[in-house]
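In the previous lecture we treated proteins in isolation. Real proteins rarely work alone, and many bind small molecules. This record shows how such a complex is specified: first the sequence, then the SMILES for flavin-adenine dinucleotide.
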Amino acid sequence: MPDIVVAGAGLAGLVAAAEATDRGARVVVHEKGDRPGGSMLLSSGVIWRHRELDDFLRECPGGDPKLQRLVHDRLDDDLAWLEQQGARVTERSTGNPRTTGVRFDTRSLTETLAGQAGEIRLGDPLREVPERGPVVLATGGFQANTELVRELITPEADALFLRATPWSTGDGLALGRAAGASTTAGLDELYGRNMPAPPARITESQFVPLAQLYGHQAVIEDAEGERYEPQTWSEIDVVQWTARRPGARATYRVSEERLGEQIRGRTIGEMVTAAERAGGPVRRTSGWVDVDVVAGITTTLGGLAANTEARVAPGVYAAGCDVGGISTGGYSSGLAAALVLGRIAARSALDGR
Ligand SMILES: Cc1cc2nc3c(=O)[nH]c(=O)nc-3n(C[C@H](O)[C@H](O)[C@H](O)COP(=O)(O)OP(=O)(O)OC[C@H]3O[C@@H](n4cnc5c(N)ncnc54)[C@H](O)[C@@H]3O)c2cc1C
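The predicted 3D structure, ligand included, written as tokens:
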């Protein structure tokens, strides 16, 4: 009998398992996919927080301030712990003055944590909460469940581009609810990026480089001529708006004069050329470039309601994108929430809190 069962070998699950193993527990990790790492492996690997707690609270106004404070206050120590485990840091800055954090090599992060996570059973999803013994739900949200996304987030769910692994279909949400957990506000919210529209071919390794991140520099319009002005620095509102427009599509019209402008280490021109090379619809006409984009869903933001011990029901704990109430109404680092709550979930599960 394991001391603790973990569902999901993405960041939250691996962190919980490594923490529990470190405390001498026998851990079994169920992983639905054919490899560990979840969407974390495909990510940019930047684990960050707002520099100021007040900015976090203001930018994510629908979240639970107790959980937000926890992530904010614990992150720096948890980043140091992660580095001590042996995960390789590639950058000690986020490149964004509002935030602070560290970029990890996601392959090294996965290998390091998987090596310390106890027994990992690949291709073996957790289907029910074990009767005896604590469980940590860390299945990564429900973005790959088109029906649930249609029901809760957008009628255009079929048209969304899945910018994540295909395995996060809401199992943690269902298991938690069946065990008596309640859900948070913001079940209709998603995090993602606008991506080159079909017929672009986008493989997993292109999820990051093909993101079109110049909404602030473009005129954004949908097929019906409705325009949208970005409200946030992260452009999360732009992708949420696009996801609800016909075909989950929009067009970015950008002046050729702006193609040299740098955004987070890349020029707009480079992002446009990348879209063009992938086969996305790009039209160049007298001084303007039009790029058709489709909303790419990366994670859902609503989820199970956890307390500050990461408990969602008796004997049931959750971490990562299975937990809501952190980014609600805005955007914060999903990796940071997974790291902090993953460690807390393991400790609470072992201590029976
Ligand atoms: C392209 C891209 C770039 C990103 N960049 C960043 C970034 O720079 N910074 C940041 O903070 N966030 C980023 N993210 C988001 C980040 O990856 C997620 O927030 C994070 O991975 C969430 O961790 P998690 O453990 O909840 O989910 P995951 O890491 O996705 O892990 C969930 C795991 O659960 C497994 N699973 C599902 N159902 C079951 C089941 N029933 N039983 C067992 N296992 C199951 C899945 O297969 C998966 O392995 C990015 C994501 C992508 C795709």
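Summary for your notes: The longest strand covers residues 288-300. The two ends are 20 Å apart (CA to CA).
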